[in-house]
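Input/output pair, single chain:
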Amino acid sequence: MTNTRTVLTLATMLVATTVAAPFDSERIEALRFLRVYGFLKDDGESLSSNNATSLRRALSLFQEYYQLSGNGALNAVTLHLMRKPRCGLADIPDRAYSPIARKWPKTRLAWNFQVASEEISRTAETAFALWAANSSLTFARDPLHPDILISYRTGVHTYANRRNVGICPAAFDGPGGALAHAFFPSGTTDFTSKIHVDDSEPWHVYLNKDPPDTHHLLQTLTHEIGHALGLQHSMRNDSIMFPYIPDIENQFPVKLSIEDILAIQNLYGSHDDGNYPPRRPRRRASRRPTQRARISAHCDAWTPS
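Output:
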């Protein structure tokens, strides 16, 4: 009888361990994701009760951000979205800085895609043109002195320009996950904003629809350029600044939403606010006074006091 109870107890513990292990690994995965993307600010790694409370609050915030059901519970829909390819920048950034300071103090910017093929350069040029068409900004390629430098990087990586020493704080995690990340402008003219694109991803560089299981480079570059100009993520899934790659039917053509246009114009104005010289006021043709006006003027000049 005792042996039977022992066997049953061990079997129960084995089943409990088997069920708990995947769930705990999913919670750890969710904790890491929520910290990386700004939904969870603590630095703990344990699954304590306090940590579980923080996890529920962070999950609830994530689900609210993306309009998911769950009420703070870690469910399959939430995990599925967390695992989809996306931008590597946080959805909820540190709000300690002034947003006005995170913009370029000029509207004419130079860019370069480091060691890029003709197709890749054309794709980048198209992405910049989308922002230029809807703001006072103008862009020109300058391989030697770019304000915005784009490069392919993989895994743990350094910066592409020699002025920045050290290792980039945001390592790529291989295919899937973070596709690219960018650095916001500093507000100074001598700053170089970087855009890093994960070279381990299957990129499609042409401007038409993607082959299966590839990522649309134009879509990603347009999004990351938005960051390099000072824009944050958007909660609207029709925005180019939405963090996740849109569904295939919503990827073409790549375009800015009304929210994107208003956001970039709030920072830099529209075409009418810059770039174009002010129009000279037209001179109206002078008309000779009529005979009655000449007589009236003559009489007024000689009216006795």
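The chain is about 35% helix and 10% strand. The first strand starts at residue 86 and ends at 87.
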